[in-house]
Write a structure and sequence with these properties.
Blueprint (H helix, E strand, L loop, with lengths): L29 E6 L3 E10 L2 E11 L6 H4 L4 H21 L3 E6 L1 H5 L3 H12 L4 E2 L2 H11 L10 E7 L4 E7 L8 H6 L16 E8 L3 H7 L6 H14 L16 E6 L1 H11 L6 H4 L3 E3 H20 L12 H14 L4 E5 L3 H13 L8
Length: 370
Amino acid sequence: MPPERPEGAGAFPKPVERTAPNPPDPAELYAALDLGTNSCRMLIAQPKGNQFHVVDSFSKSVQLGQGLESSGRLSRNSMNRAVQALRICQGKLRKHGVKRMRLVATEACRRASNAAQFISFVQGQTGLDLEIIEPEEEARLAVISCAPLVSTKTEQLLVIDIGGGSTELVWIDLTRVPRMERPRAIMRLHAGFVSNDTMFPAARVVDWISVPLGVATLREQFSDVRDDSARFALMSWFFEENLADFTPYASEQAREGFQVIGTSGTITTVAASHLGLKRYDRTKVDGLMMTSDQIDRVIREYLSLGPTGRRNDPRIGRDRQTLIMSGSAILQALLRIWPTDRLSVADRGLREGLLYSQMSADGVLEDGPY
């Protein structure tokens, strides 16, 4: 399946959110659920100033896309694992009395020929209405989740979201936005990638791409290669081959004022390994700045450990160890292409973007500095 992209940034869809006619009570809770190719994750949060406070959360590896690459369908076992996780989510939503929520599914459900049957199965078993979102919206939500990490010195921004079934890249030009307004200009993209609002300086989306290769799908592509190092090199090369249609790939970019923000389990795991965390700590990882040398050092260590060593490494974890090398291959390819020696690590993504988007549309977030 080739990468998906519009014909220029103007091809983005209009926003699906509408401002609530009667803003809800600021104390009201919101929920965001992301059912991806590999994991099921949910956040329940309350608006707090210009951000939000997390009240409850859930995360579990369900491997929904297992076998999808070869069969084109979601397997019965995968669907049952997902439903078991979604039942737990349903219980949390009921416990907290959440009324405002978005529950979305991504690449695995976009690609599966039996996705409609699965959505009906979920509704019947849990009462939850899952919504399959398009790659464009997935990219937009990942971008706005990273707004608080955007530097006021950033002129060109690349946001990387490495998922289980796909990888989204969004390139944004901030040169026309006053420095102190740049994080807020990213947040305003909740209303769509093309802004008609002339009251505020706008961030300009130069281009975006959704590559149908994530940590799970890329690993499946090369599962028959036995040599660990050879498989890693092939995965990195193959991912780069799929970037040819991304506009910034073909042109040289200035190093000055260039920021890369990466959001994914792969990137946060690499960061945790760099810090030597045997128990994951989000407060130490989110917002961490890593150099390309530090990232390369961690990836080389992963390779030297081999499959057995990675399986027993507490910094990686049991859920992540089978997918860390495919994710690292994607990350290494991206850092090889663009002129940066630094990466901002974001322990945030689609769920946070869904929450920001809902709260911004309802007008319950304060418009202050991030």
